[in-house]
Amino acid sequence: MQAPSVVVVTQPGCGPPAQTSNWHTGLCDCFTDCEVCLCGTFCLTCLACQVAGDMNECCLCGTSVAMRTLYRTRYGIPGSLCDDCLVTNCCLPCSLCQIKRDIRRRIATRTF
């Protein structure tokens, strides 16, 4: 007796997470968290190290496209590598502030 054949249409573990969400704030919503905004304006390196530390990564990685992409994919936030590259290269302070605000919201809602 032969077992029935099963066709695999998706590979396990591939693709985006089952749950998707969006950024809690927009890229230019800096004034929704003035502390983060001031840190991003006057001490971008400190903010980059905070973001990297929150994600258990090397401080030098905080300003990279890879860090934004890692965060976005980890939490199922829609976007692309091209989007991450443009945002990071064109407006690094806004990018870091957005990630930090999102981390704070996720910590507050216990989803980080």
Structural class: mainly alpha
**Uncertain stretches of 5 or more adjacent residues:** none
Strand content: under 5%
User: Could you tell me the radius of gyration in angstroms?
Assistant: 17 Å
Shape: elongated
Count of extended strands:
0
The SSE order reads: HHHHH
Please state the average pLDDT score. Answer: 87
Please tally the helical runs, counting DSSP H or I stretches of 4 or more residues.
5
Q: Kindly, what is the distance between the CA atoms of the first and last residues, rounded to a whole number of angstroms?
A: 50 Å
Major sheet, described briefly? Answer: none
- The percentage helix is 40-55%
Please specify the SSE layout and strand pairing.
Layout: H1 34-42, H2 44-54, H3 65-74, H4 81-90, H5 92-108
Helix pairs in contact: 1-2, 1-5, 2-5, 3-4, 4-5
Structural write-up:
The structure is a single chain. By secondary structure, the protein is mainly alpha-helical. The protein is 51% helix and 0% strand. The protein has five helices and no strands. The protein is elongated.
Spell out the key features of this protein.
0% strand; 112 residues; mainly alpha; 5 helices
Task: Characterize this entry briefly.
With 112 residues, the chain is mostly helical. The protein has helices spanning 34-42, 44-54, 65-74, 81-90, 92-108.
